[in-house]
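debug: dumping io for the single-chain case to check the tokenizer round-trip. Nothing else runs in this session.
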Amino acid sequence: MPGILKKTTTTLEMIKWEHSIFALPFALTASILAARGLPAWRTILWILIAMVAARSCAMAFNRWADAELDAANPRTRGRAIPAGLLSRQFVFGFTCVAALVFVLSAAQLNTLTLYLSPVVLIVLLGYSYLKRFTRWSHLGLGIALGLAPSAAWIAVCGALDPRILVLTFAVTLWAAGFDVLYSCQDFEHDRSAGLFSLPESIGIPGAFMAARVMHLAMLGMLIWFGLLFHFHAFGWLGIAAVALLLAYEHSLVSPRDLRRLNAAFFTMNGVIATVFLVFVAADLWIRF
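debug: decoded output
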């Protein structure tokens, strides 16, 4: 039993399950907009299970696919597989189980979510290989997270409303921007290992500028989204709060000082997504 508990704890640490909150609030935002209020509890439950399973699958597969790269990188060689805490076989098995849970969860929602679940898995798993041949791998991660609002809308309605694609584009740019910042930590290693990223390609100052442009474009998408869904005061306050939090996030780090990158990357992004959900939910509550 102690061995099982230790392996479970190590697995949860490997996939950073607590960071499932990154895209989850945006999925819940889409679900309440699709339902014009609170969706059925059964639908919310299966959306939550599908989201956590999909992210767990993607993270575990990333650790499996990158095991040799992680072992060669001083920043990541302490991860579960390079450190010998988990075997590659175990992690691959966990990936398969998480993928199965995701597909079964999609099947509990509606037919279209089931049919689209393999496509989602291809996007989620394919991201892990992008940095081997393109500097735009950050957009791959962005798309993987950006699918969440559209998937949640389909889960509630059984069809896709083109308007929700604007939120998908916003989340894509948001996630890609912070991944650009995060990858600045591996600037030297990526160059020596022949891996691709924006920092490796255009340098850290240029990468910071690219991340800022992406986040400004994200705010533009959120404004467009607010217009499409006829936001009232709370909705617009939510977008303003996101803008302020993004500005604060960027103030935590600079091209010459990456020490607070984890705070900017992990803590603030969860706050940004949650704040947006709360304000949009309040906006809907007042209207309906």
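debug: round-trip ok. Residues 22-287 form a domain with the Tetracycline Repressor; domain 2 fold (CATH 1.10.357.140).
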